[in-house]
Structure formats: structure tokens, C-alpha cells
Amino acid sequence: MGNRSLSFSELRQILPEVHRLRDEGYKQTVSWDLMQTCEHLADWISFPLDGFPKQPWFIAWMFPIMRLTLGNFRSEKY
Hints:
The protein is an all-alpha fold. The chain has helices spanning 14-24, 34-50, 57-77.
């Protein structure tokens, strides 16, 4: 079975697919397994609600600079 595109209109549609992959197996095509991928997605779904993790100092300084430079460039383009 090759790669396939998935599209879910509701979060509750995801869990049956995850259970199916867990129970029937899947071909891992990248470095993350099913559990690592699910944990990553769950983190990014919860971050806006629970708060993002504290960034290292160099990242925390980089985003405002990017917003002031690249952010202005992008807004002028559109």
C-alpha cells in the first residue's frame, strides 16, 4: 500500500483511523512511528488551548525580528 491523503472534517473521525492503523499495521515511511506522529499532532492541537512551551532564548528573540522584517514584507505583497 502506498502513501495516501487523508482528510477529516471532525476530530472524532481521527481516532478510528489511528486504531485501524495500530491494529492492522502500516508501513512506516519516515523516521517517526504511529505513536510519535499522534503525540506530535496532539501537542499541536492542544498548544493553542493550553499554551505553547517556553522557547529557548534564541528562538524567543528570532520571532519578533522575523515579524518586524519578513512580516512587513509579506503584508505589502498581498
